[in-house]
């Protein structure tokens, strides 16, 4: 078997998007990293939220080797992944008014914390209200979204606004509406989405910026090590004990 032309084209598309995001979003990534470092330094907590496949990028920075131990997943039952049955229920729940408020009210978030809201389209009620309500509670909100959707689609929230309209900092993934990078003769639908690759890269770049910012302040970043290397479990145990009051995925 020779090389796949379409596979190569997908890598080309993903690499081009990553370069564009690196170059065009550098200042926003640095600002998001500084906001996270501010919160870590001041004793605040970090939360990440995403619905559907946007949840993958949120989960990617929670409890993982090389990641900040203080990032907690703000989970909404039924919308975290495709394991809910039927899977289409998750998409329907994203459009339910009031759900975000109920989740935040029963969560441990408080003023001064940071919430990262990941939503590719940013048009559904859940991420819009999550950002609106979080800011009303005094949280700093970082939105990770594709601004193109706000320019080319209509909001599904009663306000007519998008996620980007309710954030302190916006990270634009540059993903085109429809999230499919390839077309091919004989294939009716576009295919090969790149949003997970690009959005996860944005999240990790932001955490790297936060780590750099903390070091510049003389603060040891609360990072986790791999449990599959010698001493990793002991290291992580010490970090989790030191920051136990700011880590909620162990309770």
UniProtKB/TrEMBL annotation:
It comes from the Bacteria. Residues 36-219 form the SIS domain. SUPFAM superfamilies: SIS domain (SSF53697). InterPro entries: RpiR-like_SIS (IPR035472), SIS_dom (IPR001347), SIS_dom_sf (IPR046348), SIS_GmhA/DiaA_subfam (IPR050099), UPF0309 (IPR022951). Belongs to the UPF0309 family. This is UPF0309 protein QWM81_13395. It comes from Streptomyces ficellus.
């Amino acid at each position: 078997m020779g090389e796949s032309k379409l596979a190569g084209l997908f890598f080309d598309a993903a690499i081009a998007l990553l370069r564009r995001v690196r170059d065009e979003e550098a200042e926003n990534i640095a600002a998001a990293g500084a906001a996270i470092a501010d919160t870590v330094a001041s004793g605040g907590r970090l939360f990440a939220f995403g619905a559907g496949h946007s949840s993958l990028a949120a989960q990617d920075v929670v409890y993982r080797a090389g990641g900040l131990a203080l990032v907690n997943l703000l989970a909404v039952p039924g919308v975290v992944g495709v394991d809910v049955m039927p899977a289409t229920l998750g998409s329907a729940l994203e459009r339910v008014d009031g759900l975000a408020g109920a989740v935040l009210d029963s969560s441990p978030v408080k003023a001064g914390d940071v919430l990262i809201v990941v939503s590719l389209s940013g048009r559904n009620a859940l991420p819009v209200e999550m950002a609106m309500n979080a800011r009303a509670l005094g949280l700093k909100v970082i939105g990770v979204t594709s601004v193109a959707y706000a320019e080319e689609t209509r909001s599904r929230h009663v306000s007519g606004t998008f996620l980007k309209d309710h954030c302190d900092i916006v990270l634009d993934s540059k993903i085109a509406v429809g999230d499919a990078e390839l077309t091919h003769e004989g294939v009716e639908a576009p295919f090969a989405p790149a949003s997970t690759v690009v959005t996860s890269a944005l999240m990790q770049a932001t955490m790297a910026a936060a780590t750099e910012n903390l070091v510049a302040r003389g603060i040891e970043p609360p990072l986790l090590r791999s449990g599959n290397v010698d001493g990793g479990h002991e290291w992580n145990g010490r970090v989790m004990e030191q920051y136990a009051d700011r880590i909620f995925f162990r309770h």
